[in-house]
Design a protein that fits this description.
Its cofactor is FAD. Component of a multi-subunit COQ enzyme complex. Pathway: Cofactor biosynthesis; ubiquinone biosynthesis. Keywords: FAD, Flavoprotein, Membrane, Mitochondrion, Mitochondrion inner membrane, Monooxygenase, Oxidoreductase, Ubiquinone, Ubiquinone biosynthesis. Residues 70-326, 387-464 form the FAD-binding domain. This protein is an alpha+beta fold and 522 residues long. Among the domains are: 1-50, no CATH class; 123-183 and 276-394 and 482-521, 2-Layer Sandwich (D-Amino Acid Oxidase, Chain A, domain 2). 32% of the residues lie in helices and 25% in strands. The protein contains 14 helices and 23 strands. The strands form four sheets. Strands 3, 4, 10, 11, 12, 13, 14, 21 and 22 form a nine-stranded mixed sheet that branches. Strands 7, 8, 15, 16, 17, 18, 19, 20 and 23 form a nine-stranded mixed sheet that branches. A hairpin with a 2-residue loop joins strand 21 and strand 22 (407-409). The longest helix is centred in the last third of the chain and has 28 residues, at 452-479. The radius of gyration is 25 Å and the shape is globular.
Length: 522
């Protein structure tokens, strides 16, 4: 307990799930909570359990009820929770008091994850860099306890039969190119990770309404005098939808593409709609799939990603009218369309006579990678639709700035990209890793963690990398938005160059893995 303005405040701890920590550590945390209960004479039902988090709520009728935190993370999704876990894992930041503001019941009731059964259609393809980050913060072991699918091969080709390339983890002396994981597994693993620590965090089951910074107010119809002011050193005040308030030194917007933090703090954005939608769903094969497949079609790419057992995930980009039709068509017709798109539909298979000798790149034969000698394969046939079909519009959005004084954006709140390479959430995890490291560096030299000069270091580091990835993905999308003979030949040449020019292929794999920048941006 600590004294704040003459009153006692107790830090609540989320208990780790049984079996996740040594008994001695769990008993220590339980004893701390029991001591707080005894001192406050509080009913035991008001405390956190290993699956439920209850937090002290401020009563709007009592002006003194304003809770103080070092950092307020608005958004408890995958990226927001990853930031919290990263802060909890580092010596210089694990003492920080963190508020997580999110009305998602999963943060209190637990994320329902079953290793058996049908995979959820909402998945992420996490890169080796993201896997390393999860291992560093202690979350990957929880992913491995649940369903996940590593893949070490990827085949990419187009509908013309001209463009084709294969990638293999052995090309860069790696074991895997990535891992496909259900979003709910990633989220649950991060929750388990944060529960396994004594990190001082409080989860507020609410939504952000307004932000106040010093004498200014951010939000329609509110003024800074409408509610109590914050203590010195906690200059940002957040008013929540349940009437409670809290103050923080730093507010992190991790609340998605329609970020309330971004809106209230006045960050401007640049972007556009693609006039495309993506259909996602889980499908089943008669055999297990171990490869990631992507074929570029006239209306957009279709990807077939392994998710474990005989299941795969479909991400199919098309125009909105086609997406609306395919979302509701009967299962038989939909499966026919999927198999058509992944096989001979729209054009022939790449010709082995052209691919076998490398064409104009045959002079590079002595230096070709292992995957350059692998033959074209037809993806495993889809035999069953195993989940509902979901459709969502595609767009590109980028915040002109990520940071201002005491406010910073991460993940989809700062940028959204086309899903054709599955890089969106990996960029967000990169943001979380970078921001936590910059905060630690600021603490090490005694800098205010909300100081704009410190936060701009994070922005400078991440903005360049995010824009580079967005430019690559947007360029690919636009290159395949036109069906034109000469352009088709140029695209085919690019595919073949990626397949047969070893340094280029290795650079592409390393860049897509999140392990290095493209040379032009280095």
């Amino acid at each position: 307990m600590e004294e704040v303005k003459g009153r006692q405040v107790t830090t609540l701890y989320l208990l780790p799930q049984k079996g996740k920590l040594p008994v001695a550590d769990r008993q220590l945390i339980e004893r701390k909570i029991a001591e707080n209960v005894y001192r406050l004479k509080a009913p035991k039902k008001n405390l956190c359990t290993d699956t439920t988090a209850k937090v002290p709520s401020s009563n709007p009728g009592q002006p003194g009820q304003v809770h103080q935190h070092d950092i307020a993370i608005v958004g408890g999704g995958m990226v927001g929770m990853a930031l919290a876990c990263s802060l909890a894992s580092m010596l210089l930041t694990k003492h920080l008091s963190v508020a997580i503001i999110d009305s998602n019941p999963a943060l209190f009731n637990g994320v329902g994850v079953k290793k058996e059964g049908t995979p959820d259609p909402r998945v992420s393809t996490v890169t080796p860099a993201t896997i390393s980050f999860f291992k560093d913060i202690g979350a990957w072991k929880y992913v491995e306890d649940n369903r996940h699918a590593y893949f070490d091969k990827m085949q990419v080709w187009d509908y013309t039969g001209l463009g084709y390339t294969r990638y293999n983890a052995r090309d860069v002396n790696k074991d895997v190119l990535g891992c496909v994981v259900e979003n709910r597994v990633l989220h649950s693993s991060l929750l388990s990770c944060i529960q396994s620590t004594d990190f001082p965090k409080t989860i507020y089951p609410s939504k952000l309404m307004t932000l106040h910074q010093n004498s200014s107010s951010m939000g329609v119809g509110s003024t800074s005098s409408a509610s109590p002011s914050c203590e010195r050193g906690h200059p940002v005040k957040l008013d929540l939808s349940d009437g409670s308030s809290l103050c923080a030194k730093l507010v992190v917007g991790a609340d998605g593409s329609k970020s309330r933090v971004r809106e209230l703090a006045g960050f401007k954005t640049t972007g556009w709609n693609y006039s495309q939608s993506a259909i996602i769903c889980t499908v089943e094969h008669s055999v297990e799939n171990h490869c990631a497949w992507q074929r570029f079609l006239p209306a957009g790419p279709i990807a077939l990603l392994p998710v474990g057992d005989n299941f795969s995930n479909i991400v199919w980009t098309m125009n909105p009218k086609e997406a609306a039709d395919r979302k509701v068509m009967n299962e038989g017709d939909f499966l026919k369309d999927v198999n058509y798109a992944l096989d001979y539909g729209y054009g022939p298979h790449p010709r082995s006579s052209t691919l076998g000798n490398g064409g104009i790149f045959s002079w590079l034969k002595p230096d070709v990678t292992l995957s350059a000698n692998e033959s074209f394969e037809v993806p495993p046939k889809v035999v069953k639709l195993a989940s509902e079909r979901m459709a969502f519009p595609l767009s590109l959005m980028h915040a002109n700035n990520y940071a201002s004084k005491h406010v910073v954006l991460i993940g989809d709140a700062a940028h959204t990209v086309h899903p054709l390479a599955g890089q969106g959430v990996n960029l967000g995890f990169g943001d979380a890793s970078s921001l936590s490291r910059v905060i630690a560096e600021g603490i090490a030299v005694g800098t205010d963690i909300g100081e704009v000069s410190l936060l701009k270091k994070y922005e400078a580091e991440r903005k360049l990398e995010n824009i580079a990835m967005m430019a690559v993905l947007d360029g690919i999308q636009k290159a395949y938005s036109v069906d034109f003979g000469p352009l088709n030949i140029l695209r085919a040449a690019a595919f073949h160059g990626a397949n047969y020019i070893s340094p280029l292929k290795r650079s592409i794999i390393s860049y897509a893995s999140g392990e290095q920048r493209l040379p032009i941006f280095s």
